[in-house]
Design goal:
homodimer, 526 residues, alpha/beta, 8-stranded mixed sheet, 5-stranded mixed sheet, 18 helices, 15 strands, elongated
């Protein structure tokens, strides 16, 4: 039905067009002019398709993997994930946030025009009739859509959910195509910098509580960047694109960024050098903002002055929140997304000792490690006062500020910690196993098990007619169940259960009537 | 740029092909031979596209909605959702389950061939280069893929996540295209019917604890259905398709189903009548299984005898689990999915008083209410011993049994209950608002707020320099915050805070040193 193709060079594919029909023609058509890694992916796809068609043997062999850039969470990883979520949710609730949820996909047009150069990374759904849909790229745009749709002008909410980006993931560094974001946002017309300061306080609290080692929160303001570009002579229509070059300063040297600004973005050497003078200023605090307010050129830009004044005010609130030891004002922080309008920030882990966890799937992801990545960025956010207005039919603005905790990297670090630690992670909460040393007691075991379930005790029972006592005890040791309730002929006659402590191996007879109470007492202590 | 089309009949669309270019040609091409609702959707899409292209005015007007068949959850709905999840997760944990998570999309081929006639409802992702992907249709197939991929032969796990079906949703009845499933499954080679009985016990516990009114769990077995079809003279290759007709007995009369079996599935009247004799038998218990084992025709089918014997055994365990009051053996229960191999079950709410909540979006979903739906089905599941083997390169089998709680309908009922109840649902957990009656105390308010946050107290503060005391108290009343910590010049001098009980309006001075303890005491009581 299909011939196997031996390929020596990309252009071999070109000849395919017209020789294949249906989906194959479609594939072949898209192959011309591709890069080697892209070709590898296409080959894999053709071979997958061949397998589906049945090949010569008519057998269906599955490619057993999760999609590129995604992962399963096994029970141990889930236990870690739940712990991280609990810490984060507790913090969000401590700050009085409500929560909401939105669909995993939005109308395609809801996402269009919000992400600048990153829009190409959006996952589109296939047009199967009906609406044109795309997977959410972040939680911020759906939040803005929700506010506009429900005419909400005041809310403090958190949202923890997965988002989707067709990026080339470096999974060893905790970067994926499907990943969780934990967002906290404050919408409403308030006095300047108070909600902004609370967002930074939240990042500070979460990163401290998770004990990930030392961290630093960089702060800047879009208006300062814009003002700076303006006084350096960047034409206004190039602000955003130059911004996205400056954004790369955490992974590239100034020389490389300058090169990009001159060669790719088409600015003169002089303009680039002037930008360099600002973005290479060492990060500081309130004092730096004060100093820049005196800068003869910057002080001529209304936008820059507004931004600098707000940064100064922000630092005064951060002082009251006792967070200034970890926050710096850094003129080189840019952030790529289009929708920011004021303060922006990003938190990074600075401790050198944090090595990435190797991901077993990495071998599959041959087509795309993009090289050095922003090592250690774990949270980011800023003010976006115009986004909700983009959705409102009358353009009514709802000022917003928020922060997003990117926790995949945090999971990676926690998983690595758990692996090297001696502490065993339990993946169940079972308090007691109902067991027997004798045969033919399945019915009695099931009956006791149901009694305990009905009393709210967490119980397991092995699904065998006549399991060996040893295998029942082994199950407890392996899964960390602390107690065994052992039934035998004698115990049934006496109306008791032998309650065994798995760790100490002590056994005592407990009357059936007292069993629930006794289990509760023992498992609340431990 | 585009002419508005006045359409009188579907075939008008045919003429469009070749007259449009680019995406419009694609749209037009797919329009021939469509039904009226489909055409309506296509028209909506064209108009959307027109809006995107800018139309004459060049203005971008957003369609402010969530995709068809999806919904947002506002904070009140989230509070209800969390409560339902907590009940369900507690039950799963009480039964010793671990949890895991899988990506929201899978390789398309992972899903292919698992869902029978329902496969057309799978959401495909657009081919943007790379792998062919589709959104998960349920949590069972990803679970089987996970087991095969990780060579796991024994696990008891729960998984709560959203699944996706391009169905025509009846949202008033809690049916959506994006909806949650709460799955509990037991994988492993065990003695018959013990894990199966635990799954039914779990459904029993959850539906009882959620207090949704009376319910009934119907049980049957695929092998009994197959044996019955066999002895009635249905050719084997038609077992599945007849099964999916019988599956409609909960929403259609036997006459309609018979009609489908004869006219659409091509069986004779006699064969259909014979099937009718069985599926119209009144539901029973262990006694019915016993009676059917004596049935001269059924007893000739090995499959039927195996199924009936297991159903009898299942009922004996359900007796020990004290659940037989809500479980019936019902020969008319079929269930559509292809992968079931043994026991199947479905839980329905039987209380008449449970009316559906009207969904505000229903007006948009004009194109598709399919009419009467299975009213009140809230859980279903069964045994699928072959599914994992389909993924294993060597076909190794891992027997599985599980249950899926479909909770959108449960949410609807709970939301309705909440609306009619006088009890106010809180959407935050804030314990105290830091407030002031005087001006110029923002800094002091922020400082106290941070002190309390640092002590783990849930605190809010209004983001205004000088808010009115009245608006601060109103915020507490509206959101249910029980306490206000009021600061004034005098209090600051005295080193105290005026702690006000919002409900009783009582105020006492509490020394700053004792404040945390006092707030904890008061909010743990209430």
């Amino acid at each position: 039905m299909m011939t196997v193709l031996r390929l020596t060079a990309p252009r071999v594919y070109d000849g395919l067009i017209g020789r294949c029909a249906g989906p194959l023609m479609h594939l072949a058509r898209s192959l011309s002019g591709m890069t080697i890694p892209q070709i590898d992916e296409e080959v894999a796809k053709l071979l997958q398709l061949k397998l589906q068609l049945g090949g010569d043997e008519g057998k269906h062999v599955f490619v057993l993997k999760t999609p590129k850039g995604t992962r399963d969470y096994n029970p141990k990883q889930m236990a870690i994930r739940d712990k991280v979520f609990k810490t984060i949710i507790n913090c969000f609730k401590r700050h009085g946030a409500e929560t909401l949820d939105t669909p995993v996909f939005e109308l395609k047009e809801t996402l269009t025009g919000k992400y600048g150069e990153d829009s190409k990374l959006i996952y589109d759904l296939k047009d199967q009739g009906g609406e044109l849909l795309a997977l959410r790229y972040d939680l911020t745009v759906p939040f803005a859509r929700f506010l506009a749709m429900n005419k909400i002008t005041n809310i403090k909410r958190y949202h923890i959910a997965k988002v989707y980006r067709r990026d080339n993931p470096a999974m060893t560094r905790g970067r994926y195509r499907e990943f969780y974001q934990c967002d906290f946002d404050i919408a409403g017309q308030y006095d300047p910098m108070i909600p902004d300061a609370e967002c930074l306080k939240i990042v500070y609290e979460i990163l401290s509580e998770l004990e990930l080692g030392d961290f630093l929160i960089k702060v800047n303001d879009r208006r300062i960047l814009d003002g700076m570009f303006d006084v350096c002579g960047v034409p206004q229509e190039k602000f955003r694109t130059v911004c996205s070059s400056v954004d790369k300063l955490d992974k590239m040297s100034w020389e490389e960024v300058k090169n990009e600004i001159v060669k790719e973005k088409g600015l003169s050497e002089e303009v680039a050098d002037q930008i360099g003078e600002y973005v290479n200023i060492k990060a500081g605090g309130s004092d730096l903002a004060e100093k820049l307010l005196q800068d003869p050129r910057l002080s001529k830009s209304k936008a820059a002055v507004a931004g600098l004044t707000d940064v100064k005010l922000l630092f005064s609130y951060l002082e009251l929140f006792q967070t200034t030891d970890k926050v710096v004002f850094d003129l080189s922080l840019a952030r790529g997304l289009d929708y920011y309008t004021g303060v922006i920030y990003e938190a990074i882990l600075t401790q050198a000792g944090v090595a990435p966890v190797p991901a077993p799937q990495e071998a599959n992801g041959s087509a795309g490690d993009e090289g050095p990545v922003s090592v250690g960025s774990v949270a980011g956010g800023g003010r976006y006062d115009g986004l909700v207005g983009m959705f409102d039919p009358k353009g009514r603005k709802v000022p917003c500020v928020g922060v997003s905790i990117g926790i995949e990297r945090i999971f990676s670090i926690m998983e690595q910690k758990a692996e090297t630690s001696a502490e065993k992670i339990r993946t169940t909460e079972t308090q007691v196993l109902v067991a027997s040393a004798q045969k033919n007691l399945l019915e009695d075991r099931l009956k006791l098990t149901a009694e305990l379930w009905n009393a709210g005790i967490k119980v397991e029972v092995l699904y065998k007619r006549n399991p060996k006592l040893l295998s029942q005890l082994q199950h407890c040791e392996e899964t960390g169940i602390p107690l065994v309730a052992i039934l035998g002929e004698q115990e049934l006659r006496d109306g008791v259960v032998k309650l065994r402590n798995v760790a100490s191996r002590e056994e005592v007879d407990v009357s059936r009537a007292d069993l629930v109470e006794e289990i509760r007492k023992r498992t609340s202590e431990s």
